[in-house]
Specification:
This protein is of the alpha+beta class and about 190 residues long. Helix content is about 40%, strand content about 15%. The protein is built from seven helices and six strands, in the order H-E-E-H-H-H-E-E-H-H-E-E-H. The termini are far apart.
Length: about 190
Amino acid sequence: MGTNAPLLGEPLPVELMNTIWADRNGGYDALSTPAETTGWLQATGHDVTQAPADLALQLRELRDALRQLAADATDDPRPRTSNVDALAVVNRACALAPSWSSLNTDGSVVRICARTTTEQAISKIAEQAVSLFSGDHRSRLRACLAPGCVLFFVRQHPPPRMVLRLLRQPRPRRPPLRPPPLKPGTGP
């Protein structure tokens, strides 16, 4: 099982936001059914066999909340389609699958979670979203403003000002290609 959503190598919360996309034929939602939700979770590396309908709905709700937060963070001028309390949705998703460490007698540590793999996946994505929106990536988050595009991405290249600054820096002097000739009387 796979997904028809574009997977662009972005951080997982951005990949979730991009499960809504558009092309010349219209708009698409890769999480519209529990089967499609399961396919997307599997395609993004989660060990999920079947996402129940209520958890698929929670993942769509998380996606809509993340898109709203991203639109706010990027000053996205596109029309908003959701009026959810985005912070409450993200925080609720983070708490969906609490986990803890357990120390074994041999000194190894095991991570334990008393929830389903789907709940763990939703919680993990929400936790990564908290890091995305509270860390350095927030300032690099962008909305694609190409006509008809509804995707988000994290800018990977340096901003133009930084490139110009790097170009203006004096270049180190290169050593001559061959040694200068010896002056008379200074030879070996």
